[in-house]
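REQUEST FORM: STRUCTURE PREDICTION
Request ID: SP-0412
Submitted by: Lab K.M.
Chain count: 1
Length (residues): 324
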Amino acid sequence: MSSQFHQPVDATEVPRFAGPATFMRLPLVPTADGLDIALVGVPWDGGTTNRAGPRHGPREIRNQSSLIRRVHHVSKIAPFEIANIADVGDVSVNPIDLMDGLKRIEDGMAAIVAAGALPLTAGGDHLTTLPVMRAVARQRPVGMIHFDAHSDTNDSYFGGNLYTHGTPFRRAIEEGLLDPKRTVQIGIRGSNFSADEHDWAKAQGIRIIYMEEATRRGADDVMAEAREIAGDGATYVSFDIDCIDPSMAPGTGTPELGGFLTREAQAMVRLLEGVNVVGADVVEVAPPFDLNGMTALAGATMMFELLCIMAKSVADRRKQKKVS
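STATUS: Completed
RESULT:
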């Protein structure tokens, strides 16, 4: 076993139910200095418009992530052996002031990016992705591969409020953070506010793959298109847990019937290998609506799937630098 990088607590030595709860049972460190990938919580749901609760997501995802082991059973990627990864705790949040909350999250994420680490965050509602993108995309706009039941490109809610969990990607495009022509949204479904709800997103160049199309085509075909849209450029991956069917992930703020099975979601994320992922998140896990921790477990599992892809990319880049 490598001693070069941080390692999880060994469940054959210390039971999973013992010790402090951290992501994947990794060490909790005060900063991202020296890390390749920083696992970070964003316990904030200031953008939630209906069922609040994603502020509790990071803590429960940490609890359920104690079930994660060291090696991916399909790809055989052992992320903790090939990249330096740790839990850097939660960014500072403000639960009663939306704009200050956004600024605190951005500042916390900017420090992680400045340290040279790739952020993999657990939210929080989907508005948390906007301040994360403000940090990740300061130098250039990013593309995005987005798994969700909802496009989250609405303009405003409740008399002109521009910042909700239904608006982050409209704001990100307007702020020059997100390149819509390198953006694909996968699994979109459910009833809409209006017949033209997605017209703005499509007009910007976003490729929306509705759930029915994704089901018809299958994971391999859909993800081949997603990789082509993202190209070689810097790409952010956002995984809203409500892309999974509520029969398997009931603990979320805006559940929509007819979603992906958890194994389908896993298969799609595994096909991200080779994408230039510069940051990723799992959002909208709302423990107050969960059953027996199953949604938090889905969130922890999807974080591990993303972590494997990101760690493999880090290791490949390290090898290329040594060769050159």
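NOTES: The first strand starts at residue 37 and ends at 42.
Reviewed by: T.R.
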